[in-house]
Write a structure and sequence with these properties.
This protein has 343 residues and is α+β, with helices and mostly antiparallel strands. It is built from 11 helices and 9 strands. The structure holds 3,4-dihydroxyphenylalanine.
Length: 343
């Protein structure tokens, strides 16, 4: 017993002394394993307990445990000491020079499309419209069928579509939100909403992108007339492009409106006298519109004998390009910060 106790004492003293000389956390960890680890010196001593008498064993065990606790708490102290040491030496090595220029942080800019969308929304909110949304993955029923475009209708060809299945596609227009909103609001009157969002078509060139944005408009109420449509759109164009703007309506065709009209705004670049952008006509086409077709009102749950409506749909990219004089639509999607910085 005496020999073993002597051995424990030796290990304790030696370890404490070696602790003091340590210079790194790695060394500390290695020493801990060597003494206190599963195959460490103290553990090995415990294994020799078999040579002791029954009375000596618990006493010896107690001594070893005390020494272990003692060394463990000493180990914690050393750990703190070495961590401090490491921090101090790092602080000494890293010199802080506050006279150096600050690191350059890239600043983001609002995308011109987001800006135009928000501006369009603000103008219509100001006229008492609400904002409505619908899914970008749409059914054939909402995207075409309910909008008076039955299967095989030749006008479907105007919108080359991305089909997912025969009945599900990426919406080619925001017009399906007309139906979804009427279904939701019926029998409420008036319905007075705009529906901004992304739409998808199989087009890709300087003036067409496979993904682009539209803002749809729909008003349904008793006694709605085409002059209401014209008044709302004139006000919109003047707020968007300047108070001197005028609009004109040209007869057109959309399956979901009857009659239908293409709306032009007087050219904001030449004030109507004719330039390259308006192709010397003085007018720029900016949206499609018309009086909601009775079939469409019916699909939305409303009775075309009792209420009428008007609708319109505009391309946001086109408005942004006109407003900011952007000549190639692809610039809007290149994500080049030098382009975005200009707005
Ligand atoms: N959905 C049409 C398109 O994408 C645009 C449009 C035209 C919407 C006339 C309308 C409308 O609501 O009345 O080409």
């Amino acid at each position: 017993m005496v020999v073993l106790l002597e051995e424990v004492r030796r290990i304790k003293e030696e370890t404490l002394k070696r602790f003091e000389d340590l210079e790194s956390l790695d060394e500390l960890q290695a020493l801990k394993v060597k003494v206190l680890g599963k195959k460490g010196e103290l553990t090995a001593l415990l294994r020799q307990m078999g040579s002791l008498s029954a009375e000596e064993r618990p006493k010896f065990g107690q001594v070893v445990n005390e020494v272990r606790d003692y060394l463990e708490s000493a180990w914690e102290d050393q750990l703190k000491r070495l961590e401090d040491l490491a921090l101090q030496s790092r602080l000494k090595a890293e010199k802080l020079d506050i006279s150096l220029p600050a690191a350059w942080l890239a600043r983001g800019y609002q995308h011109p499309l987001t800006r135009v969308m928000e501006e369009v929304e603000d103008i219509f909110l100001g006229m008492g419209f609400q904002i409505s949304e619908g899914p970008e993955i749409e059914t054939d029923y909402y995207n075409f069928e309910a909008l008076n475009l039955p299967k095989e209708h030749p006008a479907r060809e105007m919108q080359d579509s991305f089909y997912i299945t025969e009945d599900i596609l990426l919406r080619t227009q925001t017009s399906p939100v007309q139906i979804r909103t009427m279904e939701k609001l019926y029998p409420q009157l008036p319905v007075k909403i705009i529906a901004p969002g992304k739409v998808y078509r199989k087009d890709d060139d300087a003036t067409h992108s496979p993904m682009f944005h539209q803002v749809e408009g729909l008003v349904v109420d008793v006694g709605i007339r085409m002059s209401d449509l014209k008044g709302i759109l004139l006000n919109f164009c003047q707020e968007m492009f300047g108070p001197e703007r005028e609009i004109r309506l040209r007869p057109s065709f959309f399956p979901f409106t009857e009659p239908s009209a293409e709306v032009d705004v007087s050219c904001m670049l030449c004030a109507g006298s004719g330039c390259r952008i308006c192709k010397h006509t003085g007018w720029l086409e900016i949206l499609g519109s018309g009086m909601v077709h009775p079939q469409v009102l019916r699909a939305g749950g409303y009775d075309p004998e009792k209420v009428r409506g008007f609708a319109f749909g505009m391309g946001v990219e086109r408005i942004a390009m006109l407003k900011y004089g952007i000549e190639d639509m692809r610039l809007l999607f290149d994500n080049d910060i030098r382009f975005l910085q200009q707005f």
